[in-house]
Amino acid sequence: MEDSASTTGTGARPLSLSVDVTAPEPGLYLVATPIGSARDITLRALDLLNTADVLAAEDTRRLRHLMDIHGIHLRGRRIIAYHDHNAERQRPAILAALADGKSVGYASDAGTPLVADPGYRLARDAAEAGFSVRALPGPSAALVALSVSGLPSDRFLFVGFPPAAAGARRKWIAGWRDVEATVIVFESPRRVKQLLEDICEAEANRATVICRELTKKFEEVMRGTAAELLEQIPEQGLRGEIVVLFGRPEAEPADEQALREALSGLLGRFSVREAAAQVASRCGVPRRDVYALALAMKKERE
Description:
Blueprint: E1 27-31, H1 43-51, E2 54-57, H2 60-69, E3 79-81, H3 87-99, E4 103-107, H4 119-128, E5 133-136, H5 141-149, E6 156-158, H6 166-176, E7 182-187, H7 192-203, E8 207-212, E9 220-225, H8 226-232, E10 242-246, H9 256-264, H10 272-283, H11 287-301
Parallel strand pairs: 1-4, 1-5, 2-3, 2-4, 6-7
Antiparallel strand pairs: 7-10, 8-9, 8-10
Helix pairs in contact: 3-4, 7-8, 9-11, 10-11
């Protein structure tokens, strides 16, 4: 998602690989690359980039620049471009290399391969053909944003990039808006304001976090409700790489009819107190109010 070749700090020297490492076994290796600071790459990823027989990348220039920063030479190897526009054409060449018993390292534009990039088809076809598929874990913009957001992380949903068309985007939002989880979105910096406007049409008070330029020098995290952050964003949008997170939807207070319906199926099987406790917890209503209603319903039945 972000420039994998940028660095943080000053006076940093390239890391030169001077230690011999064992050549990887044949198979496809999915290599996570930095989303911002080039120093976030793992030692295992550097080893693989240094020793794989074949390299493939969503953006060959970025991978080449990242390798240059860390002192890794191609030594006659070619980096195969593999992205949305040429995946069908290039995939057979990569599978042929795997069939020849070679090790292939695939790196996405930045971050973890297969997260909002075309690599999943390559991994699927390689696995179906019987080749080994392994992941080299590392940076992920979605997980970095979740970590710093302050939103609940026990259950989260990554929904990728929104559709650009207004109608399709609203339908897309409706598909996840009621999910009881923190929602993670990748968005164009120019369309963040439009995304928040669409959210505010249904739930202006939704807890929202905007993460900009994660792991870079000018990293910024904005927190508030969707309406509050909407007011802070200029008409032209933001700059840099953006991740937007939405907290869980607010519980809508249940009306008396809804509470009666929920209680009606429980009063015959549980005590008034237990039935009231279950409904109060489920509907987010004070227990004493539900208990009073349950008592009234019991008297009505008697």
